[in-house]
Amino acid sequence: MYLHSLSYSKIYVAKILYLSHDMYKIGDIIDEFTHRKKFPIIGLVWDIKRLLPWRITKDAYKIWISEIMLQQTRVEAVIPYFERFITKLPTLEALAMVDDETLYKLWEGLGYYRRARFLKEAAKVCMDTYNGRLPNTYKELLTLPGVGMYTAAAIASIAFDQAVPAVDGNVLRVYARVHVCDFDIAKEKTKRFVFEELQQEVDPNNPGDYNQAMMELGSQVCIGNGTPRCNICPIASSCSAYKQGLQNSLPVKSKLKERRKQNHTILILRKDHMYYVHKRTKGILMEHMYEFMNIEHVLKKKEIEQLIDPMYGIVKIKKFTSHTHVYSHVEWNMQAYVIDVKQIDDHFVSWQMIQEKLPMAGAMKKFIQEIEKETS
User: Fold this and answer.
1) Could you tell me the end-to-end alpha-carbon distance of the chain, in angstroms, rounded to an integer?
2) What is the pLDDT averaged over residues 79-107?
3) How far does CA 112 lie from the centroid of its chain?
């Protein structure tokens, strides 16, 4: 491991002015001073110009919802989900009392549905234990279902001004490059190490701004996918990786296990405007979400006929579209068939129900879109 270590280090406090979705102009350097720290990191003061809905509030509930949604999901994708969610469930009490199907429908398309389930569980804890409010300390926030070190720190610092570092992938990347640190950032011990180091650096007067500026620096300038934008970075002069030309080789991150590949046959059974759907079993991937008939196997047309005709009677069977859906650990390669049937049962629901009420598994989304094109 190589660590940039100075007794006295210049730390630049820069003002970052947001000009557009993907471009920063580095404004005036407003201060330069000497700081005695073994692992110096950069304090940033920023003006928030990107009008993200969760950044224009100190409402802890809204900040919490946004932080959970932003896990594994791009900012641009989160915005409409966040706004719809807050409109439908504006308070902790509303979230604690919502029925599961409404909750999952609001979450439909975001993926990682355990996040939604944990939100509801945590809301119930808040109603029962914290008088209907989110706890206001880092340690108490950590006790909530689905809230880890990063999320607890983000809420505590942004909503409650508690000086605790929020260490996500963006911050880990910035730290690794500034200090030429070759610890594996995928490992929990690295995250805890960086957390302890940055605990000394968080601005106690503006911890929320400090944390958000660090995350913004990592997501918009010190990027991970593509070439880091060192030419506009406000801390390039203090970055050891930049000075040594190592910014493209850091951080070190171990590769995830290769995804398993599965072949699925999707059977879209319909009669008039009624479609077959069923809820996925508890304890499996995408539990509680609805889907069309989903067979984990490649079925030939003859096999499909033998399966469906005795149950519903086949009028017509047509090979439909195919597509691949990628989850974190498994990849589904799916071939769909549309089957018009003679009779239906309680598994069949209206197309309006599918569109407006039932939370459909993400893997079904493209098939739904293709059906809408076909029937419009």
Assistant:
1) 60
2) 97
3) 8
pLDDT tens, 122-132? 999 999 999 99
Taking the whole predicted model, whether its pTM rises above 0.85 is answered as no
Could you tell me if 227 and 183 are in contact, meaning their C-beta atoms sit under 8 angstroms apart?
A: no
Please say if 201 is a catalytic residue: no
SS3 286: coil
What is the widest separation between alpha-carbon atoms in the chain? 80
Catalytic residue from among 67, 108, 197, 291: 67
Domains of the chain as residue ranges with CATH? 9-244 (1.10.340.30), 260-375 (3.90.79.10)
Does residue 21 contact residue 43 with C-beta atoms inside 8 Å?
Answer: no
Phi/psi at 176 (5° precision): -60, -35
Q: 138: alpha, beta or left, given left = phi > 0 and alpha = psi -120 to 50?
A: alpha
**Given this model, what pLDDT does residue 284 score?**
66
d(CA 83, CA 197): 35
Contact between residue 7 and residue 40 where contact means Cβ atoms under 8 Å apart: no
Measured CA to CA, the distance from residue 172 to residue 195 in angstroms comes to 9
Q: pLDDT tens for residues 279-293?
A: 987 766 777 899 999
The fraction of the chain above a pLDDT of 70, given in percent, is 86
Q: What integer pLDDT is reported at residue 327 of this predicted model?
A: 82
